[in-house]
Design goal:
287 residues; alpha+beta; L,D-transpeptidase catalytic domain-like; 6-stranded mixed beta sheet; 4-stranded mixed beta sheet; 3 helices; elongated
């Protein structure tokens, strides 16, 4: 008599092994799907936490209001320098009515080049010469078209020498900062500035100290990285979220990456010129 158990058992073992392997594969697939979903959830949570952190930092560092509503009127005695030419005023008005933002982008208060029809190639003009009395003269500006918006910044040192005196300008009306090395603009950004209640002062200030890691002693220990201190009572240039609808308590807030580059380029004693509505262009003496 044939032992049928011996004939059929090996195939039964094989079928059992196949079922076990299939089960293990299905289990592994379920575990992988669960891990992938968990990773996606963690990524989404991290992004949400990062956004909340930026908003929290802004709320600790700045006042949630439109600085335009707090700026002194043009006729007030606080007094700004002479008004800009009508062409620049019209450009600022057009920018303020831009429908892409709640309020229009900041306007660079730098004179625009004059475009002329020329019959053929023309040699590049010579670099402007410094006035006979010396001083700091603007020799070139970054070729940025149009206006720049909150959070925008630009940095390009290719036209400037590696070494040379650095001067920083800030215009409160345009809400724009520019850094010039030896007269050549190497960086510019939109900034947050103070309000009428907490004004950003006008004038020329030397950089008193450089503080890589700094926090506000007045405003809830708000982080103020890459600080360039301008006054001993708390006015400084420092890194911060630059968001539309916020204003500072008098400091000049710039995007963190821009602040890092400016911090590296600046030295103690370098001059910072803060104005309201002053237009400058190539060939102008600013110091």
């Amino acid at each position: 008599m044939v032992n049928r158990w011996q004939l059929t058992r090996p195939s039964g073992i094989f079928a059992d092994m196949v079922r076990i392997i299939a089960f293990l594969i299905a289990l592994a697939a379920l575990q992988f799907a669960a891990l992938a979903q968990s990773a996606a959830d963690r990524t989404a949570e991290a992004a949400a936490e990062a956004a909340e952190a930026v908003a929290a930092r802004a709320s600790r560092s700045f006042e949630p209001l439109d600085p335009d509503s707090q700026m002194p009127e043009p006729g007030e005695p606080a007094a700004a320098p002479p008004p800009a030419p009508s062409a620049i005023a019209e450009a600022a008005t057009a920018a303020e009515s831009d429908a892409d933002a709640l309020r229009g982008p900041a306007v660079r208060m730098i004179s625009l080049p004059v475009v002329q029809d020329v019959p053929g190639p023309v040699a590049a003009p010579a670099a402007p010469k410094a006035p006979s009395g010396g001083g700091f003269v603007i020799r070139s500006i970054l070729p940025i078209e149009g206006t720049i918006r909150y959070g925008d910044w630009f940095w390009d040192e290719s036209a400037a020498p590696t070494y040379g005196p650095l001067v920083i300008t800030v215009d409160l009306e345009a809400r724009v900062i520019s850094a010039f090395r030896d007269g050549h603009e190497i960086g510019t950004a939109v900034v947050l500035v103070g309000t009428q209640e907490h004004p950003t002062p006008l004038g020329t200030f030397p950089i008193l100290t450089k503080e890589r890691h700094n926090v506000s002693e007045k405003y809830n220990n708000a982080p103020m990285p890459w600080t360039l201190r301008l006054t001993w009572d708390g006015i400084a240039i420092h890194g911060s979220p630059v968001l539309n609808g916020y204003a500072s308590h008098g400091c000049i807030g710039v995007p963190d990456d821009f602040a890092r580059l400016l911090f590296a380029a600046a030295r103690r004693g370098d001059k910072v010129i803060i104005t309201r509505g002053r237009m400058v262009g190539v060939g102008d003496k600013i110091l």
